[in-house]
Write a structure and sequence with these properties.
Order of helices and strands: HHHHHHHHH
Helix content: 55-70%
Strand content: under 5%
Number of domains: 1
Number of helices: 9
Largest sheet: none
Distance between the termini: 47 Å
Shape: globular
Length: 292
């Protein structure tokens, strides 16, 4: 079977090898790197345009929601209060459902999500994917700032009930749970998607979407946020992710993608070494004389 050292008949000696001169510092082939004179490849330009479009659209959505909330627009107000009132009545009648929603909300709490991102950033720093580690840390801090700053500045009250099933602290717009879960799942998908196959990408994307939707739903089911709070949280998370990506790509073109390739190249090399390691020999068993 042809391998990295395979060469066709008639080719010069060493034609099939990947020499040290043609490898990057992390050991990955130089083909993974953009040409030296091309600071932004077509893929990088598409990434910039996609991030800009998603970020501006999300910012527009957040701004529209903020204006409608501050103006107390009656259609949105009726929708918000109608949803939380219906879900609150259901939660009072079904304590098992309420307990399940509270458990899921605790698992998706902002500090849990930030701890995951912090651990990911530390690990990336240890494997020398420094720019990617900084990006993960940046989206974590920006998500926290968007949540805390937005609620402090806007100051929208949370839903109020005489007999609440859960109590939230602080203002309600935007939802901190929605921001944290969306930022965390989005960042983890960035680490996974580039070198994963189609099935893994589909499973990971579905799991991330269900996690984000599930955490957002718990805030409505427990009566601690309005639907517009959760939607604004998702929009803010998209602005954070795309804004951080644009900033890094403009500051260090191609470094995010290079760190992702470096990460997957190192992981693949380690997995190949584990799979290629010989299995320990099974100890020989002597026949039992009593059975002969």
């Amino acid at each position: 079977m042809p391998n990295r050292y395979h060469r066709t008949p008639g080719s010069p000696p060493g034609a099939g090898k990947v020499s040290v001169m043609h490898q990057s510092n992390d050991g990955s082939p130089a083909a993974d790197r953009p040409p030296a004179g091309d600071r932004r490849s077509p893929v990088q330009r598409r990434t910039l345009l996609g991030c800009a479009w998603i970020g501006l659209t999300s910012l527009l959505l957040f701004t529209v929601l903020l204006i409608l909330v501050k103006a107390d627009w009656s259609p949105l107000s009726r929708l918000d209060h109608g949803w939380v009132a219906t879900l609150h009545r259901y939660a009072l009648r079904h304590p098992v459902w309420t307990a399940a929603m509270q458990t899921l909300a605790d698992l998706g709490a902002p500090w849990t999500m930030r701890a995951l991102l912090g651990a990911a950033a530390l690990w990336l720093w240890c494997v020398r994917a420094r720019v990617l580690a900084g990006w993960v840390l940046a989206v974590c801090l920006l998500g926290w700032a968007a949540s805390a700053g937005g609620r402090a500045l806007i100051g929208r009250p949370r839903p109020h009930f005489v007999d609440p099933v859960a109590v939230g602290s602080g203002a309600g717009f935007p939802s901190g749970h929605a921001i944290a879960s969306a930022v965390t799942c989005g960042a983890l998908l960035v680490l996974l998607r580039p070198r994963a196959d189609r099935v893994v990408r589909a499973v990971a994307s579905t799991g991330a979407a269900l996690t984000v939707l599930g955490v957002g739903w718990t805030r409505l089911a427990l009566g601690v946020h309005y639907p517009s709070d959760v939607l604004a949280g998702w929009a803010a998370a998209a602005v954070v992710l795309t804004g951080a990506t644009l900033a890094v790509e403009l500051w260090r073109p191609g470094r995010l993608g290079r760190d992702v390739r470096r990460l997957h190249w190192r992981l693949r090399s380690r997995v190949q070494r584990v799979l290629a390691a010989p299995l320990p020999a099974e100890p020989a068993t002597e026949p039992d004389p009593g059975r002969s």
